[in-house]
Design a protein that fits this description.
Elements: H1 3-6, H2 41-49, H3 67-86, E1 95-98, E2 104-110, E3 113-119, E4 124-129, E5 138-142, H4 148-156
Antiparallel strand pairs: 1-2, 2-3, 3-4, 4-5
Length: 158
């Protein structure tokens, strides 16, 4: 299941009664983004910019970012932001990039900790890093529908 299926974003014309319980109506800004997207404006722009990358965008033969990964990342970042804000944590913009496989990558750093999220069309995975030892100071896995908040809590803890 992708993020769009797990967390459908209501259309501009949806009525409040059409939305799942617990979801607030988000009026549209002049550029088509919802008002809830405004804190994400620069991140959303960075993600959309990836669509303009062609093959060999990095000079090392990497394919262009996949349209499905770009679309999934636009949906996922909204879910991540909403999860962080509703849990009472402070949001920080990620570094947005593409990788050599055509996927979208989000990265955050806090002190010695680094959280990397890979957005693929079919799944979302993470790598947590808190040192150099791959066996004892790194962890990876899949981000589930409820799995981003614990990752953010780990990153934001001192």
């Amino acid at each position: 299941m992708n993020f769009a299926e797990a967390y459908p974003i209501p259309s501009e014309t949806a009525s409040v009664s059409d939305m799942p319980i617990g979801r607030a109506y988000a009026p549209q800004a002049s550029d088509g983004q919802t008002v809830a997207d405004l804190p994400l404006h620069s991140t959303l722009q960075s993600i959309r910019r990836l669509s303009s990358y062609g093959n060999d965008w990095d000079g090392h033969g990497s394919p262009a970012p996949r349209a499905e990964s770009v679309q999934s990342s636009l949906e996922a970042i909204r879910v991540f932001h909403r999860s962080i804000v509703t849990s009472g944590h402070r949001w920080a913009q990620p570094h947005v990039s593409a990788n050599e496989d055509g996927n979208v990558v989000f990265e955050w750093w806090q002190g010695e900790k680094k959280l990397t999220i890979y957005i693929r069309a079919a799944n979302v995975t993470f790598i947590k890093v808190w040192g150099m030892n791959i066996d004892t100071e790194m962890e990876d896995g899949r981000v589930t529908n409820s799995g981003f908040s614990p990752l953010w809590t780990w990153l934001s803890e001192a």
